[in-house]
TrEMBL record:
UniProt cross-references to NCBIfam families, sorted A to Z: organ_hyd_perox (TIGR03561)
Gene3D superfamilies attached to this UniProt entry: 2.20.25.10, 3.30.300.20
SUPFAM superfamilies registered for this protein in UniProt: OsmC-like
Family: Belongs to the OsmC/Ohr family.
Organism listed in the record: Streptomyces smyrnaeus
Transmembrane portions of the chain: none
Protein name: Organic hydroperoxide resistance protein
InterPro entries in the cross-refs: KH_dom-like_a/b, OHR, OsmC/Ohr_fam, OsmC/Ohrsf
PANTHER family: ORGANIC HYDROPEROXIDE RESISTANCE PROTEIN-LIKE
């Protein structure tokens, strides 16, 4: 792969620390959620992953929509990232909820979402590694 861009971020002190991008545009306090025994006073890696995947998938949907000459500019994608125990470690599962624009019929919308899932770099990275459910709302 020839990288067009490389994001660089550094995290210190794990889930109870801070994550900062090399350009300073991202600087977040990290904290485990209450559900995992934390105080919930910061963001967590699952929220960051959910936001990144949702944004990336929405962009991929825009790419396939433009190719098909279908306006999906009003679509919204919500990422849900669950974390749970698996064996001795932990695992992730993702649900992407895609709200398509009014007037986009079910068959065309489903086809565009499926195509976006083939184009999206996050989808390509997770495919075969963690479950990803696509829900059209």
């Amino acid at each position: 792969m020839d990288a067009l861009y490389t994001a660089v971020a550094t995290a210190t002190h794990g889930r109870e620390g801070r994550a900062v991008a090399s350009d300073g545009k991202l600087d977040v306090q990290l904290a485990p959620p209450r559900e995992m025994g934390g105080d919930g006073q910061g963001t967590n890696p699952e929220q960051l992953f959910a936001a990144g995947y949702a944004a990336c998938f929405a962009s991929a949907l825009g790419v396939v929509g433009r190719r098909a000459k279908v306006d999906v500019s009003e679509a919204a994608v919500t990422g849900e990232v669950g974390i749970g125990k698996q064996g001795e470690g932990f695992a992730l599962a993702v649900t992407l909820r895609v709200e398509l624009p009014d007037g986009l019929d079910g068959e065309t919308g489903r086809a565009l979402v499926e195509q976006a899932h083939q184009v999206c770099p996050y989808s390509n990275a997770t495919r075969g590694n963690i479950p990803v459910e696509l829900v059209i709302e």
